[in-house]
């Protein structure tokens, strides 16, 4: 059984069954059967299903939000926002997706008629994390179903209630049997499922270690894979920036989802001319963060689990042993649950091992940059390349950042966020491939050339 735990109280939640071999086989067979018919379903009918799934999310938004709060501790208001984002993402693909599937006419030198067609591949396995238990799944689900594929979900162990709820939303929308199913399995079962001939591709959002294992397995099997892995995103502030706004957004970006987001700002890289002024504002904003019962109107609830909280505590202690100074915070408050107060690490040695790691919790690392070249060098001096946020009013500096920051995404004078219209993904050890927009839709479609 999967045993969930409410991270706000430490009390056990619902116990949910694990699929045995017979259940896995039944779901794989159902997925294969569903795909053979779904691939022939017109795009406008697929889009209509997405719109109905969006309706189901909106109708059940409060119940869905409460499940997420109880399973992984995000605040109720942020859980509601996540459910609403899912509905918006589904509606985006329902409205604009069919046009993304239109054949592309190709101009040829000798006038030969030529077209490129987008065609579905088959059942796709999605291995998804707990931190955004609905949105991470929906940004796979919507383009997968629209493209004529079917989806199988392997969700995180601690968010199996969320996984079941998503399946319910799809079923309530009238989806054919087998079109989208949750494989209630643990990580050890993934490799055998990937090896099944009925699975044609996979996508994973998660840790480097999990991504490496899935990449190795899919590479050996010659199957397509998209990986969205960790990040240690830089938040760069230059002298021309609006410091009040930058500091306010930096705090929000660091404590979003209790710091448990791949694209949270994690390394604050501040130009030396405004370092002290920024730190004063940033510290005030971080100290003002309210913590408590995630069902209340607070800024931050607990971390997703006691294990996750302890991992961050250990990383902070390691950083201090390496020479960093804990300015304040990173403490376990006297309350039940996996809580950790926001904190700031300063004077982190650039060559410290912790400076190369992802801190998946509400603790920021601050670095001082001498100039723009130093800021870019420091931003790129990690094995990750997911997102970044740069703050400047100088057009030349903006051009430099856009050209030289080694990341899949760059936000300028704003907090980085995923939106349905834009490609989402990273480079280096942050993964490869893209989600969202037409790019995410096309990742799991076969491109067929037709000549004549």
TrEMBL record:
SUPFAM superfamilies: ALDH-like. InterPro entries: Ald_DH/histidinol_DH, Ald_DH_C, Ald_DH_N, Aldehyde_DH_dom, ALDH_GabD1-like, GABD/Sad-like. Residues 2-450 form the Aldehyde dehydrogenase domain. The keyword Oxidoreductase applies. The keyword Amino-acid biosynthesis does not apply. Pfam families: Aldedh. Signal peptide: none annotated. One of its GO terms (molecular function) is succinate-semialdehyde dehydrogenase (NAD+) activity. Keywords: NADP, Oxidoreductase. Belongs to the aldehyde dehydrogenase family. This is NAD-dependent succinate-semialdehyde dehydrogenase.
